[in-house]
Structures are given as structure tokens and as C-alpha cells.
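Retro notes, structure queue

What went well: the backlog is down to a handful. What didn't: a couple of records were mislabeled last round, so from now on we paste the full input next to the output in the thread. Example, using FCD domain-containing protein from Kribbella koreensis:
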Amino acid sequence: MPENLDPYRPGYELVAEQLVTYIVEQGLRPGDRLPTEKALAELLGTGRSVTREAIKVLAAVGRLQTRRGAGIFVSVPTNQQADDQVGYFQPTDLQHVAMLFDHRRLIEAESARLAATSARPAQVHAIRTAAEASVAAYQDHEMFRQYDRTFHDAVAEASGNVFLQAAVSKLRDFKEQSDRLLFAGGLPGSLEVAAQQHVHIAESIAAGDPDKASTAMTQHIDTTQAQFEQRIRDRLQATQ
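Corresponding output:
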């Protein structure tokens, strides 16, 4: 297979996608060993250098683990119950990413709704602090990424539902994989807008208004998806 069939995506990204597909198709489980780098390049019809880069990227996002002298392995997730999800999600498949946004709406809107009725004062403070920190960090992608996760995790924790909390944490892991593979570690869209939306969600939760909190979270995810899709369109147009 040619290393770059799609002109808007770098070769390592395409090979990373092929590797994830290979893992799924072969039924490999967390802890299973993959063929060597050379063998993978031959299986996929790609070059050694781009295959090596794809392996590094997938290791960085927690999908693979490389052990010196031992080989390449499917990573073992910290949450063993998420094994099937880890094998299913393909972070560069735009249909999968769209499904991820759909799932986020269901899970995170409900988390915000429950947080507005269940959050303790200390949890409200944590949500507000994370929201305000994301505003201050919107010009620094790595710092924003940290506070963005802290904010969404704080909302989920304030919901009082441990299952929602676990689901939100796993969704953030999947989001991180897509961002790092599709945007070279960057984040799509306006971080300033996202940060201001965090503040609006925090204020709705602090006010104890479940409907407003749920709506604000849904709007936040809608905006994030729209900006994500615009970023993809911009990449396509840049190659025309």
C-alpha cells in the first residue's frame, strides 16, 4: 500500500491508522505482541521510517508499548474493563470521531446536569478553578489541555456518579488520541472560546440550574465538534 494515499494527512498518521486497524482485525488484545517493525512495514506495504514514526505516535497516545529487547505490544489499559473499547476505537477514523462526539453529548451533558444538583461547595470551587485556569491558559496548548481535562473530570466527579466519572475519563483518553494523531498534538478550534464556555458551564452548575448546565455542556461539545470539522476542511482545502 502506498505510504500516503491521502494528500492532506501525513504518512505516519495513515500508517498509525493502518496499525490500529491491523490490531482490531487480528483480534489482538492488550498485552499481545505485534510483529517486528520490519515485519509490520512489510505487512502494511510501508517504509521502515514512517512505520517507526507511527509506532512512536501510537506509543505516545497509549495504544502501543515498546520494550527494548522484547518487542512491540498492545498497551494494557489502566481500566481493564475498557479492553473492548480500546480495541474498537480508531482515532483517525472520522466516523469514529463523530461517534465519540455523540457519546460525549450523552455522557457529559448528564454529568453537568447531575453536578448542578449534587455538587458540594468544594466541588463547585474545583470546577470554577479549572474553568478559570483554562481561560488563563488558552494561548498555551499543553497547559490548556491539562486544565481542560481537569475541568471535565471535575464536572464528572461532581455528578456523584462513579460510572459517569469513569466514562468521561475514558472519553478524554480517546479525544487525546485523536488530537495527537490528527493535529500533531495541537487542539482544533478556538481555545479562548472553549475556555469561556467552561466558565459558563461552571456558573450554571454553581447556580444549581441543571437544565442550563446540561444545555451549556451540549453547546460546548457542539462547538468543539464544529471547530474540529472546520479544521479538517481547512486541511483539505490547503492541498487543493
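Agreed that this is the format going forward. Reviewer comment attached to the example: Residues 112 and 136 are 22 Å apart (CA to CA).
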